């Protein structure tokens, strides 16, 4: 069986967010994550894809299976060219939202994955990268 | 927008079984449809079966909490049933508490929560039947 090792998806509608969840699920399975880790990773991806759509005006997702020779993992990057996040500490606070959300997307997804990093600046867009390794 | 989620009416209870991954606009539509059906039918209970959902992120979590709150105002109770274990673990780590939402393991137990009186009436009848059989 041949399997894709990298996929790029554009996000500009609610339906695209669903497609991101489905693609990320497939890659998390390929990376042999446990069911709980898969569920956590897909949930984080859903939050980040939605943020990209709602606050970033849409963007692109890149998801891939990675390997360090010993373990496999899944990595996903969410990049938009929106307004960026002016106060990252504030945005990462549980319950803080500039819109009408629950304010759990960024802070919560950071807890759900193995690795989490954000690159953002006012006017320069936002790029969030997450990864989880199989155990 | 994808097709809407069907709402079944059984006696005074509305039953919604979410079988597919919901995109955000469909979830909001379901929330509105449920409020509408409760007022039109005078339903006293709503059961939302989420056993088909692979994830519950903050958007779906907020929708479930909103349905519970709205139904309470309309004098009906909502019970969310069938949450998968991996989903429950993930939700807690995400920070979603679903505080005001009643939950049950499956539809049957959800119904029993909504209709304690009828349930006990049924128990009485069953017990009576069992007794007759013994004689
Ligand atoms: N891609 C993004 N571009 C710009 N701002 C963002 C982005 N993602 C998140 N934010 C900001 O961070 C805040 C917190 O995000 P999040 O934790 O997902 O909560 P919520 O989406 O419920 O507001 C958002 O309200 C928004 O102001
Ligand atoms: Mg969010």
Automatic annotation (TrEMBL), chain A:
Gene3D superfamilies: Histidine kinase-like ATPase, C-terminal domain
Keyword presence, Transferase: yes
UniProt keywords, alphabetically: Kinase, Transferase
Keyword Transferase: yes
Domain of life: Bacteria
InterPro entries listed in its UniProt record: HATPase_C_sf (IPR036890), HATPase_dom (IPR003594)
GO MF entry, a single one: kinase activity
Residue ranges occupied by any Histidine kinase/HSP90-like ATPase domain in the UniProt entry: 37-130
SUPFAM superfamilies named in the record: ATPase domain of HSP90 chaperone/DNA topoisomerase II/histidine kinase
Name of the featured protein: Serine/threonine-protein kinase RsbT
UniProtKB/TrEMBL annotation, chain B:
CDD domains: STAS_RsbR_RsbS_like (cd07041)
InterPro entries to which the protein is assigned, alphabetical: Bact_StressResp_Reg, STAS_dom, STAS_dom_sf
Coiled-coil regions, chain positions: none
Domain STAS span(s) in chain numbering: 3-114
Pfam family for this entry, one: STAS
PROSITE patterns: STAS (PS50801)
Name the UniProt record assigns to this protein: RsbT antagonist protein RsbS
């Amino acid at each position: 069986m041949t399997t894709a090792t990298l996929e790029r998806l554009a996000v500009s509608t609610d339906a695209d967010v669903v497609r991101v969840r489905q693609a990320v699920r497939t890659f998390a399975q390929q990376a042999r994550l446990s069911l709980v880790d898969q569920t956590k990773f897909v949930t984080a991806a859903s939050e980040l894809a939605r943020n990209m759509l709602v606050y970033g005006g849409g963007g692109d997702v890149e998801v891939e299976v990675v390997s360090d020779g010993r373990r496999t993992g899944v990595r996903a990057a969410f990049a938009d060219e929106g307004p960026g996040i002016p106060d990252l500490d504030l945005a990462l606070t549980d319950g803080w939202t500039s819109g009408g959300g629950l304010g759990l997307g960024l802070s919560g997804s950071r807890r759900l994955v193995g690795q989490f990093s954000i690159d953002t600046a006012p006017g320069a867009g936002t790029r969030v990268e997450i990864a989880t390794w199989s155990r | 927008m994808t097709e809407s989620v069907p709402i079944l009416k059984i006696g005074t209870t509305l039953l919604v079984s979410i079988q597919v991954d919901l995109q955000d606009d469909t979830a909001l539509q379901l929330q509105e449809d449920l409020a509408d059906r409760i007022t039109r039918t005078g339903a006293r209970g709503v059961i939302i079966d989420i056993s088909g959902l692979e994830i519950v992120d903050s958007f779906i979590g907020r929708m479930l909490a909103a349905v519970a709150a709205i139904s309470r105002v309309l004098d009906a109770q909502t019970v969310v049933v069938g949450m998968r274990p991996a989903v429950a673990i993930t939700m807690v780590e995400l920070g979603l508490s679903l505080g005001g939402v009643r939950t049950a393991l499956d539809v049957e137990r959800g119904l029993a929560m909504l209709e304690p009186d009828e349930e006990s009436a049924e128990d009485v009848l069953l017990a009576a039947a069992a007794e007759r059989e013994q004689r």
